[in-house]
Sequence to fold (189 residues):
Amino acid sequence: MTGLGDARVARRYASALYAVSVRLNRHEIVRADLSALAVSARESSALRRVLESPLVPAPDKQALIDTRLTGLDEITRSLLRLLVRKGRMDALTAIHEEYERCADEAAGVARAFVQSAAPLSDAQNAELQEALSAKLGRPVLLNVRVEPEVLGGISVRIGDTVWDGSIRGALEDMREQMLEESARAQTTA
Fold:
């Protein structure tokens, strides 16, 4: 899922799933299920290919859900069956992220997705978490991912807001600025 429409679809599924799971007081169980599914899909490319492939017939996917994923809560299994019927298994990761956002929002917590070129120390994590909490006026949970292509510095995303303090981001900004200046120079010449 990459487009704006896909994000809206994931948000709709996640919001409905969260509302149902809260109403039935099983939101933490469903949250754990979605987390486990996301980890399984990330670690097992074979599982991801089977669930997302349009070449695998829906009845085979349904059978996999019914026979192999028996440890999941019925709400989660119902979501998976619905996604198979609608051909939207590719949305599972985005739905998981949106579900987490719904749960965090209900708890008054913000989740920050941090990319850094190298692992952050415990002190750096604590300092970043404290600074973001102070800026937002609410608790912040950090999800830190090491991405060597960042080159240096960090990039932080909370919701739709991004603070890019990475070297890669600075280089991209510089490149854009140079391209704009070059285009302006060509139009005035």
